[in-house]
Design a protein that fits this description.
The complex is a heterodimer of chains A (about 110) and B (about 110). With about 110 residues, chain A is an all-beta fold. Helix content of chain A is about 0%, strand content about 50%. Chain A is globular. The termini of chain B are far apart. The chains are: A mainly beta (about 110), B mainly beta (about 110).
């Protein structure tokens, strides 16, 4: 039981490049979330999903898109990366109220 | 929108001293959760409080939920070096979304 996994662990992009972050969970959770973590600002919700095929905007959705084609996977896309998107990205999943986090992806946009 | 503030942002203690972090929400919460994030790690669920005035203990950690369900605290008795990390509160509302506080970074000097 791997829990929540994220790929890649690290990535460096140039401004304007695109990329997709993959989150996978093997706990059969309905809910999945993408957060970004910046120094002094805690965790901010980007997008979330309440089930396969559904997505919704969180607190800071601009510049990101998501898809949940399969229940176990939640993809976060950056179409045109900007330096302001340099951050650590965490994926989480939940069945009830408790959220289980992945190890994070550290993204740097130059 | 809903905001959850935590104080202090940073606390440095000598090993054996007590530590408290406080969490305040701008709105009434259905529940409050606490997470711990070790340096370089990901947030890990500690506990959830649901009832007004609820107090829960986990060994040296004591968690309280305010009577108005708008504030909470985490108290650690006799800190140890293993307590180092950032402690986040997270407020739960009507959906499965959480609003995370800004976190308190605890440093423990041996």
């Amino acid at each position: 039981n791997a829990g929540v996994t994220q790929t890649p662990k690290f990535r460096v992009l140039k401004t304007g490049q695109s990329m997709t972050l993959l989150c996978a969970q093997d706990m059969n959770h309905e809910y999945m979330y993408w957060y970004r973590q910046d120094p002094g600002m805690g965790l901010r919700l980007i997008h979330y999903s309440v089930g396969e095929g559904t997505t919704a905007k969180g607190e800071v959705p601009d510049g990101y898109n998501v898809s949940r084609l399969k229940k176990q996977n939640f993809l976060l896309g950056l179409e045109s990366a900007a330096p302001s998107q340099t951050s650590v990205y965490f994926c989480a999943s939940s069945y009830g109220d408790t959220q289980y986090f992945g190890p994070g992806t550290r993204l740097t946009v130059l | 929108g809903q905001q959850v503030m935590q104080i202090p942002q940073y606390q440095h203690v000598q090993e054996g001293e007590d530590f408290t972090t406080y969490c305040n929400s701008s709105t009434t919460l259905s529940n409050i959760q606490w997470y711990k994030q070790r340096p370089g790690g990901h947030p890990v669920f500690l506990i959830q409080l649901v009832k007004s005035g609820e107090v829960k203990k986990q060994k040296r950690l004591t968690f309280q939920f305010g009577e108005a369900k708008k504030n909470s605290s985490l108290h650690i008795t006799a800190t140890q070096t293993t307590d180092v990390g950032t402690y986040f509160c997270a407020g739960g509302g009507a959906t499965n979304k959480l609003i995370f506080g800004t976190g308190t970074l605890l440093a423990v000097q041996p």
